[in-house]
Design goal:
Chain A: This is Branched-chain amino acid ABC transporter permease. Chain A: Keywords: Cell membrane, Membrane, Transmembrane, Transmembrane helix. The structure holds two protein chains of two kinds. Chain A is mainly α. Helices cover 71% and strands 0% of the residues of chain A. Chain A has one domain: ABC transporter involved in vitamin B12 uptake, BtuC (Orthogonal Bundle), CATH 1.10.3470. Chain A has 15 helices and no strands. Chain B is 71% helix and 4% strand. In chain B, 53% of the residues are buried. Classes of the chains: A mainly alpha, B mainly alpha. At the A-B interface, helix 5, helix 6, helix 12 and helix 14 of A face helix 4, helix 9 and helix 11 of B.
Amino acid sequence: MTTQVLVRLRTPLLLCAIAGVVAVAGLAGGPTVERVAVLALISIVFVTGLSTFSANSGIMSFGHVAFMALGAYTAAFLTIPVPLKGTLFSQLPEPMSFLRELQSSFVVAVVVGGLVAAVLGLITAPGIARLSGLQSGIATLAVLMVTYNVLSSWTSVTRGSSSMIGIPQATTLWSGLGFAVAAIIVAWAYQSSRSGLQLRASREDYWASVASGVSVGRHRATAWVLSAFLCGAAGALYASFITSFNVSVFFLSTTFSFIVMVVLGGYLSLSGAVLGAVGVSLLQEVLRRFQDGQFTGGSALPAGVADLMLAALLLVVLIKFPLGLMGSGELGQRGRQQQTDEVEPQPEGASA
Amino acid sequence: MIIEYLISALGLGALYALLTIGVALLFGVLGLMNFAYGEIILAAAFALYFFREQPWFFAVIMAVVFAVVVAVLSERLAFHPLRGADPVTLMIASFAVSLALQSVARMTVLPRAQGVPPESFLSQRVDLLGARVSVLDLLTFVLCGTVLAAVAYVMGRTSLGVQLRAAAENFQMAEALGVKGNRVIASAFVIAGVLAGIGAVVFVARQGAVSAEMGLQPMLVGVIGAVLGGMSSLRGAALGGFILGVGTATLEALLPSSLIAFRDAFLFTALIAVLVVRPQGLLSGSKVRVS
C-alpha cells in the first residue's frame, strides 16, 4: 500500500524537482538567466492550469489567456500604490471607485487574481461543459476575444490600450517557485481525485463513461473553473514580475506560445505540460538571442525569425508526434505510456 | 439615407458571405477550420500594395494569383501531411501556419503598416434612385455578388462542384467512388484562394492600408459566419456570413457610439450562445457534423 502511494507521488515530486532545478539555474546565472527562469516558473503555473482542463478532458482550449489577463488586471488593481492609482484611474465610474482605495499584499493579490478569473470560469462553465472538439476550440477562443475586446475598449477602468504601470515587483525566483510547486500539487491532486479520474475516463471514451454514470459536463465544469483559477494566479504573478503590461500581451501570440508548450510536451499529460513550459521558455530565449544576432556574429536578423522557427517546430511536432513528448503518460509512471500511445483520443461524437 | 444603408449593408453582407464560403469550403472538404485564411488574404493584400503603381485591373489579377499560390503552398507544406488528423490538431496546425506566414510578412516586406491609396474612381459618389451612393459600396456589392453567383454556378452545375460537394458530404465514400481526393482538396484550396483574393481587393479598398496583422479580422468574420450558418452546407454558410454582414452594418448604424467599441464582444458572445444552444448552426437542419 505504502509503495503504491509512493509510486503515485513520484510524478508530482519529479515535477516539483524540475521547477526547483529551474529556480536554481536562475540563481546561478546572471540577471538575464534569472528573468528567463522566473518567466519559466510563471509559465509552469499557467500550463499546469491549462492542462488541468485540457489534459484531463482531452479538449484543447484557446481561451485560457483570458483568465491570465483577468488575474494580471486584478493584481494591478490590488498592488499599484494608492497615490499612483489616483492618477492612473481618474475616470473610474462611480460604482467602481472603491478600487482606487484598495491595497493588498502580493500573496493576497495572486489568490484574488485567481478567484476573479475563476468567476469568469464559473460564468462560462455551463457553455463549455456542453461542448467538445472543434466547437469547444472556437467557443474558448470566443471567450478570449470577448475578454480582449472588453479590456481594450473599457478605457475608463482598464486604461484601454495604454499600459498598466507601476505594479510593485514582487514575484521573485523563490515566490515563483513556491507558486509553481503549489500549482503542480493542486493540478496533481485534481488529476488523482474522483472527479479528475472520471473526467479522464470521459476523455478515453465519451459514450462508455456516460454509460457508466459519469456526469461529464459537471466534471468538465469543475476542471474548467479550477484551471481558470490557476491561470488567473499565473496572470497575477506575471503582472507582479513584469511591473507594467499592455493589453496586447493577452492575445493570440501569447496563446500561441502556451499552445506550443502543451503540444510539444504532450497535451494529454501534466508532466508534458511542465516539461513543455520549461523547454519552450528556454527555446524562446535561445531563439530571441539568435534573432538578435548573438550566434551569427552580431548581425541581427529581422524581427519575426524567432516566431517563424517556433511555428515551424510546432508544425513538425504535430505531423510527426501528434501526442507530443509524453503522450498521455506521466513522469515516473511506467507502463501507461505504451498503453495509450497508439490510440488517438476519440473526440466525442466522432462515431456518430 | 435608406438606400445608402441598404447598399452598404448588402455590400458588407456579400463580402462577409464571400469570406465565410472560403472558410466553410475547406472545413467541409477536409475538416480544417483554417486560421491561416487571414494570411491568404494578407498575401493578396500585399500584391495590391506591391503593384499599386500598375493598372488596377492588373493588381487585382496579381492579388488573386498571390492568394492562390499561398493557399496551395500551405496545403502542400502543412495540411497535406496532416490529412486525416482530428479537427483540433488541424486547427492548431493552421494557427502555426498563420503565425509563420505573419512572421514571414513582418520579416521581409511589411514590418509596419503600409498605405495603399484607393483608386480615385472608388471614392466618388454617384446618384442612384435619388441617393448619393459611394462607388466603393456599389463595387463591393456587385463584385462580391458576381463572385458568389460564380461559386454557386461552379458548385451546382460543374463536375468539379459535384465532386467537391460529394467530398464534403463523405470524403472516404467519394474517394471510393472515384473522386480523386488530392485533386479535389487542391481545387478547394484554389477556390478558397480566389475567394480570399477577391475579398482582399474589397477589404484593402475599404481600409486603405495593408499590415501583417490585417488578416485577423476577415478570418474571424469567416469563422463566425460559418459557425452561425452551420458548416454542413455552403449555402447555409453563405447565408450565415450574409446575415453577419447585414447584422454588423445594422449594429454600427443603431448602436450608441459609446458601445460601438464593444461590438466584437457582442458578436462573440452571440457566437458562444449559438454554439451552446444550436451547435449545428442557426440555419441548418438537425444534423451535427461539426466535432
